[in-house]
Amino acid sequence: MQYHFDTPAPPRIGVESSKWDLMGPEPKPGVVPLSVADMEFLSPPQIITALEDTARSGMWGYTSWGDRYYEALRGWMSARHHWEIQRDWVAQVSGVVQGLGAAVRALTRPEDSILIQPPVYGPFSRAVRDNGRTLVESPLKLTGRRYEMDFDDLEEKLARPEVTAMILCSPHNPVGRVWTRQELKRLGDLCLANHVLVISDEIHNDLICPGQEHTVYAALGEEYARNCVIGTAASKTFSLAGLCCANLLIPDPEKKKALDQEIHRSGCYTHSIFGVRALEAGYTQCGDWVDQLMDYIQGNYRCLTEFLARRIPEAWASPLEGTYLAWVNLNCLEPDPKVRAGLLEQAGLYLSHGSGFGDGAFERFNLACARSTLEQALGRLAALLPA
To answer: Which of 81, 239, 241, 364 could form a disulfide with 39 if both were Cys (CB 3.0 to 4.6 A apart)?
Structure first.
């Protein structure tokens, strides 16, 4: 089936959309926020049909996941990511963020330190600090305009006895890197040598640009798999964030037991019938939709970078290898992040500001929207430029 992404989705005004509510009760005409990481595309028609059928049943009682759910998850991981999972590895949670917090509480101690790699998704630092652990940062380094792990810095910090875990973002939000197998193995070897647990947020693992390949951290080998927790969800892939359905995959039995206990103790699980049915439909019927989506996202990225080269040559975007999020250096527009944020919003352009990820020189653009919507947004950016 050929899918079409050029038709803008209807505005989400008055429906308590976290993304749209950032713009206030009356968004300016022609503006869509390119901020919060959910899509301005309808979910695949197969998922819409599955949810309509579920809604028409009129019975939405207590629900658990079963064979159909597991087989959909297993088949998707095998076909898309070449990773063979087992049923007893699966723990369902409300979301990957909630799962990260549960993993921190279950598998580290209050006196421990946990490492992250900024600029990175803001809830990583909160998962550490809000749970009473100490944050250690190993910033990514720029080689030209491409981000890389700083292995010299990692080697020193992972060797600290108080560092017992790290939260890995793979693919990386916001810089758009898809880590190579070699990079992940080098990182994994450091973590194994220093007894550091890897908590890998792989929620964007399906959103891989053509020519790139995602490696699930646990797929590096059994030794690596037994020293990790993998977080996944269908939410980013199919625009399902409001259905609150994610999975933690934990190959080590002792870690799985401890995490199950924490999930039940903290109540961060959910078994929504709509989330379950949406995942089943997405993972069994919508692979072609994802492939066509990423072709379209890559076209949007080209549209963005061509605009920057033509109109703001001092600005630049890091290469997009995965996710639908572009990381753009707009320091030339206005070096003060707060002033720049105000200018952008006055122009009707709502982005995720880099200061929330750890680098105020950047803005994050959500490219999961119709091309015409992106062009409208870029027009508003152009309006800020000197005549």
So the answer is: 239
Q: Is 71 found in the same domain as 127?
A: yes
Alpha helices per DSSP H over the chain: 18-21, 45-57, 67-81, 96-107, 123-129, 151-158, 181-193, 222-225, 235-238, 253-266, 273-285, 287-311, 337-346, 371-382
User: Two tokens at 196?
Assistant: 């550091």
Alpha carbon distance 55, 86 (integer Å): 31
pTM for the model = 0.96
Whether residues 233 and 312 share a domain: the answer is no
- Helix, strand, coil abundance in the chain, percent, nearest 5: 45, 15, 40
Beta bridge partners of 114: 135, 165
Tell the burial category of 10 from Cβ atoms under 10 Å away from its Cβ (0-12, 13-18, 19+): exposed
CB neighbour class for 247 (10 Å; exposed up to 12, middle 13-18, buried from 19): buried
Whether 324 is covered by a domain: the verdict is: yes
Per the structure, the complete domain to which residue 148 belongs is given by: 50-285
Please write the tens of the pLDDT for every residue from 125-166: 999 999 999 999 999 999 999 999 999 999 999 999 999 999
Same domain, 58 and 196: yes
CA-to-CA distance for 277 and 283, rounded, in angstroms? 10
What is the number of structural domains in the chain?
Answer: 2
* Side-by-side strand order, sheet with 316-317: 316-317, 325-329, 362-366, 352-353
